[in-house]
Amino acid sequence: MPRPLIEVASLYKQYETAAGPYPVLKDVSLSIDAGEFVAVMGPSGSGKSTFMNILGCLDLPTRGRYLLDGEDAAALDTDQLAHLRNRSIGFVFQGFNLLPRATLLDNVALPLLYAGVRARQRKSRALELLEQLGLGAYASRMPNAISGGQQQRVAIARALANRPGLLLADEPTGNLDTRTSREIMELFASLNAGAGITILLVTHEMDIARFARRHVHFLDGRIERDERSGVRAEVAA
Amino acid sequence: MIFEMLREAWRAMAANRLRTFLTMLGMIIGVGAVVLMLAIGQGAQFVVQQTIATMGSNLFIVQAGWTRVSGARGAAASAPTLTLGDVQAIARLSTVAAAAPLASANSQLVYGSMNWNAQVAGTTPEYFAVRSWHTVAGTVFTDADVRSAARVAVIGQTAAGALFGTENPVGKTMRIRNSPFLVIGVLESKGQSLDGRDQDDSVIIPVTTAQRQLFGNRFPDSVRFALVQGVSEEVMSQAEREMTALLRQRHRLQEGMENDFSIRNLSAIADVQAQTARVMSLMLGAIASISLLVGGIGIMNIMLVSVTERTREIGIRVAIGARRRDILMQFLLEAVIVSILGCLIGAALGVGAALGVNWIAGTAVVVTAASIVLAFSVAALIGVFFGWYPARKAAFLRPIDALRYQ
Predict the structure, then answer these.
(1) Whole-angstrom distance, CA of residue B156 vs CA of residue B137
(2) What is the pLDDT of residue A235?
(3) In a mutagenesis test of the B interface, which of A110, A122, A163 is the best target, namely the one with the most B β-carbons within 10 Å?
């Protein structure tokens, strides 16, 4: 039995508002093994984005425990969290979030820069990733010179730069058309199947969620349903 | 890493050229003003120092007393109270290195078809030592010339140029108030005196010749001034006391009677002038520094706007692993680059303006490397100081807030 990559126990998160504390997550416990492909679903305000932020070490829970690969995120200082995000987690956002003034190559190389990789290796690794995703020819272009789907591929390349074990994708297809969305999802599926990268994906759409083998439904700050299925095989067929 | 950060800073600056330029303008004007003001202030200081250097060190000027005509006081040194004997007695004091009498008047000079009006001063050879004034051609006169009241003259550069043009004056005979004088030496250039007079527009002759043959003094033994050099800076006040006592004794002044002479310490006067020039230099610099400060505040202002504008970018960077110090360094570097670039341009403009002032107004300016280094390091400090707060603000943004920022 593989040891859990993500282990969340009795997670609470509340925001302080003018009207008093507002709970967003109430007693969330979840365990995800390495190599899983999980879709996190639920309506707006159900707490799924906050949950993802905590998993991504961008936010800290009010109470409860979060272990990433056995390490307690609460025990780390900001620099150690930055290091953890840099090495172990890849982020893919709905709005791509590429740096607009940097070339695609520089965008992909950015996590390597913060990891302290030397310039020559940074360049070859970033180029290798861009080529892998079919964008080698655009390396010296600016983000606004390519399409949305291509930008998301660049963002995925950037997320993969330091070979993290975990990809967190927050509605990665939210800004893309159906065909491009499908391409991006197939890319995720192949990264999961081929490289064994654990993927957590936030989405509203069932079409997108079908690519994942496990569906976690949030409702009002709690996990409402947690179902495993073999749907992926069906999709691939 | 530092190279990438420099590139990043450059990108950010290039993305908003007009704003970068306007931010820089504050520094440009500030540094330019500091460099220009320091140049002018130090120029003034330089002029004073040079004048003091040409004057000779540890000098007193002893002046004869005043005449009284029915109770009204006449001009200083109008009474014949200071004699050559007094000057010789002063020279024998242990605290006095040398003393030279000085009798001078403006006189007409003629050589060939040229004529010129210059100050003619009668004195002794000690004068040249006291003023440390040397000849560039020929020699100065001797004690023997003084004793025999020889008609020899040593001529200053300005007078020599006006009278002799390109000719060598040494060995030529010129006329002073229609008396022929043999020019035996040409003095080196001294420039302006503290009161702005051209010291080179002068002719020096033996005091005896001046008194007996040229100025037609009623009291041929008296002089109006004496130039006295103290042995050292430390004994100046003692020398002044001794001279006063000596002269009072020689003039048989009773207790309670007013001095019939006056002694002025020229070095002290010069020191005051030098001090004034220093204070002016400092004040100009201080005023200009205020514009540097304003420029720094401009940088802070724009950096704060820049941090707010790039909140999302900061969020992305933090999400993919930038540490606080990476973000801090990035923004700090940007502020420092803006201020240093502004400083370089400002320094160049300041030097240019200083040269322009020198060219147009003829004001002496001195641009020292130190003043540019000073402006440069102040600019870098201002970049760090005023960039620190915005950079810190950027570094301490919470990643989720930064990412959510639209």
Answers:
(1) 11
(2) 42
(3) A110
Measured CA angle at B331 (ends B326, B333), to 5 deg:
90
Shortest Cα distance from A230 to chain B (angstroms)? Answer: 32
Q: For residue A95, what are the contacts with CB-CB under 8 A and spacing of at least 6?
A: A175
Residues in A 54-83 with any Cβ partner in B closer than 8 A: 56, 58-59, 78-79, 82-83
| Chain A residues inside the 8 Å CB shell of B318 | 58, 82, 85
3-state secondary structure of A217: strand
Contact partners, residue B363, CB within 8 Å, separation at least 6? B40, B43, B357
Query: In which residue are the tokens 């950060």 written?
Result: B5
The answer to whether B200 and B190 are in contact (CB under 8 A) is: yes
Say what the pLDDT of residue B152 is.
94
Q: Nearest residue of A to residue B4 by CA position? A: A113
CA separation for the pair B216, A99 (Å, rounded): 95
Residue A234 clears pLDDT 50, i.e. is over it: no
Q: How far apart are the C-alpha atoms of A25 and A226, rounded to whole Å?
A: 16
Q: Say what the pLDDT of residue A172 is.
A: 93
- For B253, other C-beta atoms within 10 Å of its C-beta total 15
Tokens of A173: 């297809």
A151 vs A90, B163, B340, CA distance in Å? 15, 87, 36
Between the alpha carbon of residue B322 and those of residues A81, B47, B118, B399, the distances in Å are 10, 56, 79, 10
Dist CA A104 CA A135 (whole Å): 9
Instruction: Identify the band that residue A2 occupies on the pLDDT scale cut at 50, 70 and 90.
Output: low
Contacts with B95 (C-beta within 8 Å, 6 or more apart), sequence order: B230, B231, B235, B238, B239, B242
Distance CA B289, CA B291 (A): 5
* Amino acid found at B55: M
Residues A93-105 have pLDDT tens digits of 988 999 998 999 9
A210 touches chain B (CB under 8 A): no
Give the pLDDT score at A114. Answer: 92
Provide the Cα torsion B159, B163, B164, B165; round to 10°: 90
CB pairs under 8 A between A and B: 64
CA distance A199 to A217: 16
Q: Is A53 an interface residue toward B (CB < 8 Å)?
A: yes
The Cα–Cα gap between B33 and B27 comes to: 10
Q: Which two tokens stand for residue A1?
A: 């039995």
When scoring B7, B316, B327 by the number of chain A Cβ atoms within 10 A, the one with the most, hence best to mutate, is: B316
The pTM score is: 0.71
**Per residue in B160-199, pLDDT tens?**
999 998 889 999 999 999 899 999 999 998 887 767 778 8
Instruction: Report the SS3 class of residue A103.
Output: coil
Write out chain A residues lying below 8 Å of B400, CB-based: 53, 58-59
The residues near B69 (Cβ < 8 Å, ≥ 6 apart) are none
Strands B59-64 and A222-228: unpaired
Q: Which residue bears the tokens 């004001």? A: B363
Structure tokens at B205: 């002759």
Give the mean pLDDT of B288-303.
87
Which among A78, A86, A119 has the least Cβ separation from residue B320? Answer: A86
In contact, A104 and A140? CB cutoff 8 Å: yes
